[in-house]
Amino acid sequence: MYKVLVTRRIPGPWLDLLKRETEVDIWEGRDPPPRSWILSRVKDKDGLLVTLTERVDREVIDAGVNLKVISTYSVGFDHIDVKYALSKGIRVTNTPDVLTDATADLIFGLLLAVARRIVEGDRLIRDGKWNLPWYPEFMLGKEVSHSTLGILGMGRIGRAVLRRAKGFDMNVIYYSRKPHDVDAKFVDLDTLLTESDFLVVTVDLNQETYHMLDYSKLMKMKRTAFLVNASRGPVVKEEDLVRVLSEGRIAGAALDVFEREPISPDNPLVKFPNVVLTPHLGSATRETREKMAEIAVKNLLNCLKGESPLYEVKL
Ligand code: GLV
Ligand code: GLV
After folding, report:
1. Is 180 assigned a catalytic role?
2. Which GO molecular function terms does the record list (predicted)?
3. What is the CATH number of domain 100-277?
4. Fold adopted by 3-96+286-304
5. Is the pLDDT of residue 315 over 90?
């Protein structure tokens, strides 16, 4: 029987299937397993099922001398040294598609929340500070309908954001490595930055996108514009974002991802009323997380059997 290392419990019945077909060694905690646990346990394993909090670098890959497959329970694979794994004949698989709609829904939720000051309004009421009846200039936000949405990256999630934006009659522009056959205007990065009312980050994290939005880029945004990021924290240089927010150079931000997660309660971002924060919830629906479990387990089993996985990371 194949031996498999699983670094977290996953929702739904799919671990049971994996346990019937392989010998499973699983970390039962909700916290990430210690690195030493992974390094010692991976030694005799044929397959590895990880989440995005486990760094699968050369050391882990070298320790897994029998490894045939690394299946990540995520769409992102920036935590895995894919190039090195592939060079050693180890297949790498991920779980795209099934989380696209959930993530695009959250992105829209963030966008609406920050534009219409939903979280701020909720807090105001709970703090007992809603003490005047309706008046015309109370808590005015930015209109979402008919505004210009700039999408950075036009992959699966970018396209799902675009579909939603059509329902809001938004004018959509986008920038990505190459133009796509979509109903939105392809522009260069500068135009995207200078024309967007809402700038939504949907690129994945890699060497080219690391700190892609730094001070000089963020400064090109309109003072009235909002940044929305539910991709990976390090695409935005966080200290530079804090700086432009402090200087009032953009209208606000809505963030689901951060350079270091979890962020600490004294992260400067926490102080801004015009920033909406969620704790990496992009794919966090019951339905999506169960589908991700199905895909991650099937990817793993297929690779162990020498069959094609449902999704494979290729460089
Ligand atoms: C979530 O961030 C994922 O990559 O699936
Ligand atoms: C708002 O509640 C309105 O009636 O305009």
Report:
1. no
2. glyoxylate reductase (NADH) activity; glyoxylate reductase (NADPH) activity; hydroxypyruvate reductase [NAD(P)H] activity; NAD binding
3. 3.40.50.720
4. Rossmann fold (3.40.50)
5. no
